[in-house]
Amino acid sequence: MTLVGPSGPWQSVARSVGLTAPDGTVAATIFAEMSALAVRTGAINLGQGFPDVDGPDSVKEAAVAAIRAGRNQYAPGDGIPELREAVAAHQQRRYGMTLDPATEVLVSTGATEGIAASILALVSPGDEVITLEPFYDVHAACVALAGATQVTAPLVPRDGAFRLDVAALRAAASPRTRMIILNTPHNPTGAVLTRAELEAIAAVARERDAIVVTDEVYEHLVFDDVAHLPIATLPGMRERTLTVSSSGKTFSFTGWKIGWVCGPADLITAVRTVKQFLTFTSGAPFQPAIAGVLGDDDVPRALAASLAGRRDLVCDGLTAAGFDVAVPAGTYFVTADASSLGFDDGVDLCRRLPELAGVVAVPVSAFCTPGSPTWESLRSWVRFTFVKERATLEEGMRRLSGLRARR
Ligand code: GLN
User: Which of UniProt's keywords are assigned here (predicted)?
Assistant: First the structure.
C-alpha cells in the first residue's frame, strides 16, 4: 500500500505496527486512538496503561526541591552520577549484577529511548532481529527504522496463560540474527518468562552471537510467588545483553520519562553514541528525585501487592462477563479472548466497546505484525489495564457484565 505523504523511513515504521489505513493515511498509536476515544465518549479507560494515582508525595517534593535548587540546565548526557550509582546499586541488590556506574549505566528518556538507541546503534539494514509476538510496538517500530527485518517468536495461550513457543524461537534464528529483543514481564500478555524460557533465548543468542535487548520496565510488578529473572544474569549473557528499565512503572511516574540502559561498557558506548543525538539529555530535576527513591523497595512492593488484588478483581469480572481470560503473572495488563462472547475481531470490538459497555480496551492484534499467524490467532483478544482505582475497575466490570446481552 502507498502511504500518503513524503516517502521515507516513517512509512516502514507505520507498516511495522499496522498504523496504515486503507486510504493510505496513517493513524496514531493504538494507545493514543483508544485514549482519545475514551475522552470523546466518557467511557472508562482501561486501554492505555498508566496509573490513575501518582507515586509518593515525597518523590514529587524531591523533584520540586531540585527545581528550586536550580537543577534546571542540561544534566550530563549519561545521566547524573547519583542516578547512575543508584541504578547500579539496584541491579546489585536485587539481582547480584555488578555494574560500573561510570561506564555500564546510561540514563535515557524513558525505556523507550533506551530501546530505540540500542536498536539504532547496533542493528544495520539486512540484519534480522527476533522479537516476541505479541510485542510492544516500539520494538517493531525501531527495527523498521533501522532498516532491519523483524522475525517473531510467538507467545501462545496455554492452560490460561501465555508461554513462549521455544521451537518457534529456535526456528526464527538464522546466521543473520543480530539481535533478540525480549520483554519480561511482558506487555501485553502479563507473562513473566520462566528460567527455562530465558535459557532457551540465551542459548539461541550465544549460538548466533546475537545481542540481547531486554525490556524489563515491569520488573517490580510481579504477583504471587513469581520471580522476575534478568536474562543478563544467565551464563555467557552479561557481555551480550543490554538491560533496559525505567522508573515510570515502578514508582508510578510514567510522565517523567526517567529510564536507563545497563550493559557491558562496549555496548553502552555504542548506545550512548546514538542516544546523545536523540534527546541528548532530559529530565534534569527528575533524575535526583528518582535517584533518591530507587533504593526503596517498599513502594514497588506495596504497588505489586495492591495490583495483584486488582488483577484478581478484573480477571474475575472478565470471566463473569464471558471472556476467556489469560491470567497475568505481572505488569499492568490482562488479556482476554472475546470469541467466547461472539466477537471475532478485537479491533472492531474495541472501537464499539464504549457504545456497547462504556469501557475502552486495546486489541491485542495491535501488538502483532499485521497479517501474521499470531495476529490471526489473537484477532479476537483484547487487553485491559488494571492499574486503576478499585472503584473504577468495579464499575468497569459491572458495565462489561452486560456485554453478552448486547451482542
Ligand atoms: N506502555 C503503555 C501501554 O502499553 C502505552 C504507552 C504509549 O501510549 N505509547 O499501554
Answer: Aminotransferase, Pyridoxal phosphate, Transferase
